[in-house]
Write a structure and sequence with these properties.
The chain has a domain of about 160 residues. Helix content is about 75%, strand content about 0%. The chain has eleven helices and no strands.
Length: about 280
């Protein structure tokens, strides 16, 4: 079961609450009503949607919902759990041979790990395994980029459409200076579209794109460690050597936690990265 990343919804909620508090503190309910303008919403939202449809293929736009969900979930793999897994598999492979891992591999849910170990069990050379799995990482990065760029572009378009709305409002206002009653609505369109576009870009689209980029970097980092672990197990590295190698990637205290969780493998390394 995937873990939820609560920081994303909390951050968005805090941002909106701060904006609402600023509005309400200056004008109460009337102040809030003055910040709602339907034409401005249509200009920004409609403009962003239109620009996205011009920029991207329909198949890519359809993936936006699934990509959006990724920002609200954490990566499945925990680094400490991976280290524990590889040390255990290395210990067994040294005692019983690499072929003895076949039954264990079938129980691993992660397809990337399972694929790598199946290649190792089949006797594929370490260099070939690394090339195959790094090619898969590259393909994953490309898929993630195509999803992330949707939000990056939306973050670029939203302020631009806000500015377009501002220009529309100013034109309407200048064309009707003789009618004092029309100045207020026209000025509202002029200012609120910029506000809506800026808020959407800086509280939603761009932070979401940055979050997805960070998740991709984390996943690439973990998969690189997985490759090293698989090659280490295949080459028959001592579990203690693997432990020392991976301990550099673990945060402070994580290796001690593994010692408490695992009774089958002796953890003796103390080399932990302090960063």
């Amino acid at each position: 079961m995937r873990k939820r990343d609560m920081l994303t919804p909390i951050g968005i909620t805090i941002g909106f609450i701060m904006i609402m508090l600023a509005i309400l503190s200056s004008g109460g309910n009337e102040g809030l009503a003055s910040f709602l303008d339907i034409p401005s919403i249509f200009i920004v939202i409609g403009g962003v949607i239109g620009s996205m449809m011009i920029t991207f293929k329909f198949e890519q736009i359809k993936l936006a919902g699934n990509i959006f969900k990724q920002a609200f979930h954490k990566n499945d793999q925990e680094l400490s759990e991976l280290v524990q897994l590889f040390i255990q598999l290395s210990d067994r492979a040294r005692r019983e041979g690499i072929l003895s891992l076949e039954s264990d591999i079938s129980e691993i849910e992660d397809k990337f790990i399972r694929k790598g170990f199946l290649l190792a069990i089949d006797g594929v050379e370490p260099e070939v395994i690394k090339d195959i799995m790094e090619a898969e990482i590259t393909a994953m990065e490309d898929r993630h980029f195509k999803g992330r760029v949707l939000f990056e572009k939306a973050g670029e378009y939203a302020p631009a459409w806000g500015m377009i709305g501002t220009l529309i409002g100013l034109v309407l206002m200048l064309n009707d200076l003789s009618d004092a009653s029309a100045l207020g609505p026209s000025m509202a369109v002029a200012l609120l579209t910029t506000l809506y576009g800026t808020v959407l870009a800086n509280l939603f689209f761009l932070p979401m794109a940055s979050k997805l980029e960070t998740k991709t970097e984390e996943e690439v980092f973990i998969r690189q460690i997985i490759i090293e672990g698989i090659i280490g197990v295949q080459s028959g590295q001592n579990p203690r050597i693997l432990e020392e190698k991976f301990s550099a990637f673990l945060p402070k205290g994580a290796l001690a936690k593994l010692q408490e969780q695992d009774d089958d493998v002796e953890f003796v390394g103390n080399s932990i990265n302090e960063a």
